[in-house]
Design goal:
The complex is a heterodimer of chains A (about 250) and B (about 200). Chain A is of the alpha/beta class. Chain A has one domain: Aldolase class I (TIM Barrel, Alpha-Beta Barrel), CATH 3.20.20. In chain A, about 40% of the residues lie in helices and about 25% in strands. Chain A has helices at about 35-40, 55-75, 85-95, 105-110, 110-120, 155-165, 185-195, 210-215, 230, 235-245, and strands spanning about 5-15, 15-20, 25-30, 50, 80, 100-105, 125-135, 140-145, 150-155, 170-175, 200-205, 225. In chain A, strands 1-4-5-6-7-10-11-12 form an eight-stranded parallel barrel, surrounded by seven helices. In chain A, a hairpin with a 2-residue loop joins strand 1 (about 5-15) and strand 2 (about 15-20). Mean pLDDT of chain A is about 90; it is low at about 20-30. With about 200 residues, chain B is an alpha/beta fold. Chain B has one domain (about 5-200): 3-Layer(aba) Sandwich (Rossmann fold), CATH 3.40.50. In chain B, the strands form three sheets. A seven-stranded mixed sheet of chain B has the order 2-1-3-4-13-12-11. A four-stranded mixed sheet of chain B has the order 6-5-7-10. Chain B starts with a strand and ends with a helix. The mean pLDDT of chain B is about 95. The chains are: A alpha/beta (about 250), B alpha/beta (about 200).
């Protein structure tokens, strides 16, 4: 056997509740994050990602409390993201019990933050999330603020810089594919995976089980992240894992 | 049952503390020599850099404390690496409990990413630490340095090449993987470790 490809459900959390947007808007409620996390863990999810999409101070505190509950009750690794702007935020999340933190806009605005997290807490703690959209000329533009504002850096150059600064993983979301359920951005993913020597987590586009097979075989991703197909029960993780196993992909059953 | 978790500068230890609590024991997180010596068993967890953590262990005297312990001790991840003789990471002399060298993974082909991060399977299990654990069961790894298979090996794993996933010598046990993050399999391994202290 070899290192298993990871299946990672992502839980967007607002005011202590799980939500999922389609193309980053139109949020729908989907339950208590800790309960949902436990259910995923029982289904053999390999890791979990909790993204705080709350802006308020009160919501932020609720999220930190939730991170503590997740750490107490779950025995698989989890990453938290959203609202992490500086070292103090990283420290808060790790102290609450998170295994890794994911930074996105803050990394683009202040790339030095990646170096600081890697040198203080280790590369394994630092996941850099990149939201990007393909422009008419075929180039992938990076976006900040939850996919609302183009930043002016291009995906491949930024991904390389992120690796060089000491990130442990890259979580790449294709905004063109996210929420559409037509499959992952496999061309961009395989290029990322081939140019980088750190793991790449694919995000955006999962609609059926074959999309997961394709993202591992064609997209060469190390892990695949999805939200709504899991939250609404369209795909059961245990069934997905058996399907991938039958397709010859190494997974943890 | 008194369980001590060694407090030092290798990241926070709360995931290990939480895992032990889920087994119904409230561990003591401490860097006080007497408290560590009086525990029924000792966990030596952590994620960190070899030279930085060894320097701290030496300056605090914890290096001598750990080597002198006689109850079951479980080193996890960097804890296991620090229990070896030497690490290639910053060319660091370690505790020398296990006569083994810690080396850096060198990818044989590009698809082999460093760190080795994620779930991989255990093989050649041979210790009460693995009671109830099956050949091929998955546990969670996250590391860039490894120890070759050696006479102390009680579990092997394969990434780029076969390597030592777990070791045992006298009262010292070690895992390269994170039992505290390895779901039910990891919980069983921690339960087995705690049970060792009842047998001594």
């Amino acid at each position: 056997m070899s290192l298993a490809k990871r299946i990672i459900p992502c839980l967007d959390v607002k005011d202590g509740q799980t939500v999922k947007g389609t193309n980053f808007v139109n949020l729908r409620y989907a339950g208590d994050p800790v309960e949902l996390g436990k259910a995923y863990s029982d289904q053999n999810a390999d890791e979990l990602v909790f993204l705080d999409i709350t802006a308020s101070y009160e919501g932020r505190k609720t999220f930190t409390d939730m991170v503590g509950r997740v750490a107490t009750e779950l025995s698989i690794p989890f990453t938290v993201g959203g609202g992490i702007h500086e070292m103090k935020d990283v420290d808060t999340m790790l102290n609450a019990g998170a295994d890794k933190v994911s930074i996105n806009s803050a990394a683009l605005r202040n790339p030095q933050l990646i170096d600081e997290i890697a040198s203080h807490f280790g590369s394994q703690v630092c996941v850099v999330a990149i939201d990007a959209k393909q422009e008419a000329d075929g180039q992938w533009q990076c976006y900040i603020n939850g996919g609302r504002v183009p930043f002016g850096k291009m995906l491949y150059a930024w991904a390389k810089e992120v690796e060089d600064r000491g990130a442990g993983e890259i979580l790449f979301t294709s905004m063109d594919h996210d929420g559409v359920k037509h499959g992952f951005a496999n061309d961009a993913l395989s290029r990322l995976s081939e140019m980088l020597s750190i793991p790449v987590i694919a995000s955006g586009g999962a609609g059926n089980m074959q999309h997961f097979r394709d993202v591992f075989v064609e997209g060469k991703a190390d892990a695949a992240l999805a939200a709504s197909v899991f939250h609404y029960g369209e795909i059961k993780i245990s069934e997905l894992k058996h399907y991938l196993h039958d397709e010859g992909i190494s997974v943890r059953l | 049952m008194k369980i001590a978790v060694i407090k030092y500068n290798a990241g926070n230890v709360c995931s290990v503390v939480n895992a032990v609590r889920r087994l119904g024991v409230d561990p003591l997180v401490t860097d006080v020599a007497d408290e560590i010596r009086q525990a029924d068993c000792v966990l030596f967890p952590g994620q960190g850099e070899a030279a930085y953590t060894m320097q701290y262990l030496r300056s605090s005297g914890l290096d001598k404390v750990i080597k002198s312990l006689t109850q079951p001790v479980l080193g996890i991840c960097i804890g296991m690496q620090l229990m070896c003789r030497h690490s290639e990471e910053s060319n660091t002399d370690c505790l020398g409990i296990f006569d083994a060298e810690v080396k850096r993974f060198i990818p044989a082909e590009h698809c082999q990413k460093i760190p080795h991060m994620g779930w991989n399977s255990l093989h050649n299990l041979k210790s009460p630490l693995y009671n109830g654990i099956g050949e091929g069961d998955f546990v969670y790894f996250i590391h860039s340095y490894y120890v070759n298979r050696n006479p102390y090996s009680i579990a092997d794993c394969d990434y780029i090449q076969p390597f030592c996933a777990s070791m045992h010598k006298d009262n010292f046990y070690a895992t390269q993987f994170h039992p505290e993050k390895s779901g039910q399999i990891g919980e069983q391994i921690l339960r087995n470790f705690i049970a060792l202290s009842n047998k001594q």
